[in-house]
Specification:
Elements: H1 2-14, E1 17-22, H2 37-46, E2 51-53, E3 60-62, E4 65-72, E5 75-80, H3 94-104, E6 120-127, E7 130-135, H4 153-156, E8 177-183, E9 187-192, E10 205-210, H5 214-222, E11 228-230, H6 233-238, H7 242-247, E12 248-254, E13 257-263, H8 273-281, H9 285-292, E14 297-299, H10 322-331, E15 341-347, H11 353-365, E16 370-376, H12 378-386, E17 393-399, H13 406-410, H14 428-437, H15 443-460, E18 463-476, E19 479-480, E20 497-498
Parallel strand pairs: 1-10, 15-16, 15-17
Antiparallel strand pairs: 2-3, 4-5, 5-7, 6-7, 8-9, 9-10, 11-18, 12-18, 13-17, 13-18, 14-18, 19-20
Helix pairs in contact: 8-10, 14-15
């Protein structure tokens, strides 16, 4: 007995923990309800989809499915892995896939991810480990839709209200890590799942420290209390010594995200296109980047990211023109005696955005526009401002897939509770183009349609597209086997080791 105790003590001393930080408490650790960045990040360690992107975010490869193929343009077959276990030891099967689909399309939940399944006609269980998905029409994101995390049918089948289910804070997944501890505003600990189908992760635990203040996160990283963390450009350029670079490896790449100022188009004052164009011409996007990012970002010219088929390189960033902005505002009925006024609301979860809001306020003042600012805690921002659409404008960002789905952000039907069309954009021409594009399989034809949408949306100015930041990540050199790829560094995290 004493020998066993010594062995257990020895193992606990040698157990490795990867220390990370998250700026906010996760709202729901349920993949079909995880819409905030903290929830999505953590749920990604706990759940798997049927498929996933490869390390370069270009090719779709197997995940819970060991094989997949199209019988025809509308019929997709998934052959599932037979060695997958849920964190409670139960076996994964086709029942879980069907249950997840039926939950997503039910009226029991409100999730923006449900939109991805709108063209599914049926999901049928062929046998215990085979699923057949039939679509109403050919759909360009038919495969990517199934990257959605799969839920356990045996746990949730009798749950009456998933939106407030205890599962959201006590989840059971199939992922490489399982939830061990959840202390809101303090610490979230994940433990390696011994029976993970790709093999047990080599790092025993991942500890997410909930730290709202960005300066505190930065100081913890500098002092090596965190093993990995994002670094803001100003800190990277001005606040790091050679000692830090001796301890950490730096990985920098353009992010799959952009930041924007979105106008609430449901409000009369933003419905005049001259007003939106004037606001666009009154800001200097490059100055914003020079002040906040140095060389670690680029100006965003529209709704789809550079390097994708949807990016329209012919659309140029508006040139600062204060005089024209004033003329447009005057034509819309605003002048020095009756200035255009609005509020920008953002969150302190990003250390950059409150400063970006101040710069925008200063720039717009030169065109006679009066801007007030409100900076909020993340959950309050989402629940009191963003989701109920109680705002003039929001300073926010989107993380995007390499394959964009304009329906989620730009179609009128996504202007609903839980939808991502937060600003209420409704352009009949864009609605029709999005509907036409959904069934396009030819990638080049689809690219032409996307690029046309890019120009129309940008010309409409529902957002002021601002900047695409670089992702700068520091990883402690004691963490081994980190292999950067086009899709980032996390693709092989189960192989990471910490010395």
């Amino acid at each position: 007995m004493k020998f066993l105790f010594v062995l257990l003590l020895s193992w606990s001393l040698e157990a490795t923990t990867l220390h990370l930080a998250t700026s906010t408490n996760p709202a729901r650790l349920n993949p079909i309800l995880a819409t905030d960045s903290s929830s999505s990040e953590i749920a990604g360690f706990l759940f798997n989809g049927l498929v996933k992107f490869d390390k370069d975010s270009k090719i779709i490869v197997e995940d819970l499915a060991e094989k997949f193929y199209f019988v025809d343009d509308k019929t997709l077959i998934f052959e599932l892995r037979k060695n997958v276990k849920w964190h409670d030891g139960a076996a994964f099967s086709a029942k879980d896939v069907l249950f997840t689909y039926e939950t997503l399309i039910s009226d029991k939940i409100s999730s923006p991810y449900s939109a991805g399944f709108r063209f599914v006609d049926s999901v049928k269980i062929v046998d215990e480990f085979t699923v057949k998905v039939h679509y109403k029409q050919a759909y360009f994101k038919a495969l990517e839709t199934w990257m959605m995390g799969i839920l356990p049918e045996h746990i949730l089948k009798d749950d009456e209200n998933m939106m407030s289910s205890s599962f959201n804070t006590d989840p059971i997944g199939t992922g490489a890590y399982k939830l061990e501890q959840l202390e809101f505003s303090k610490n979230i600990v994940l433990a390696a799942f011994d029976e993970y189908f790709e093999g047990r992760a080599k790092i025993d635990k991942i500890s997410f420290h909930v730290i709202a203040d960005p300066m505190t996160r930065f100081m913890m990283l500098k002092s090596a209390q965190l093993d990995l963390g994002s670094i803001e450009p100003m800190a990277y350029e001005r606040q790091l010594s050679q000692e830090f670079f001796d301890k950490f490896n730096i990985y920098e790449k353009i992010s799959l995200s952009y930041t924007y100022l979105g106008f609430n188009l449901r409000l009369k004052k933003f419905q005049n296109p001259k007003v939106r164009e004037a606001l666009s011409l009154a800001i200097d996007r490059q100055e914003l980047i020079d002040i906040l990012f140095f060389k670690h970002a680029k100006v965003c010219s529209g709704p789809f990211l550079p390097g994708t088929l949807a990016f329209n390189e012919d659309v140029k960033v508006p040139t600062l023109n204060i005089q024209k902005a004033k003329v447009l505002l005057k034509e819309a009925g605003y002048d020095e005696e009756h200035p255009f006024e609005f509020e920008i609301v953002t969150s302190n979860s990003s250390p950059i955005r409150p400063y970006a809001a101040q710069i925008l306020q200063h720039q717009l003042k030169k065109a006679g526009v009066i801007v007030t600012l409100r900076v909020m805690e993340w959950q309050a921002f989402l629940n009191m401002v963003v989701f109920p659409h109680e705002f003039d404008s929001v300073l926010l960002g989107w993380g995007l897939s390499p394959t964009p789905d304009p329906y989620l952000f730009w179609h009128k039907d996504s202007d609903k509770k839980g939808g991502f069309n937060l600003v209420g954009y409704d352009n009949p021409k864009i609605n029709k183009m999005i509907e036409e594009s959904q069934s396009m399989i030819d990638r080049e034809e689809l690219g032409v349609k996307w690029r046309e949408m890019f120009k129309i949306i940008t010309d409409d100015n529902p957002y002021l597209f601002l900047y695409i930041p670089n992702s700068i990540t520091a990883v402690d050199k004691r963490v081994k086997n980190v292999t950067p790829a086009l899709g980032g560094i996390w693709h092989n995290y189960i192989q990471w080791e910490k010395q």
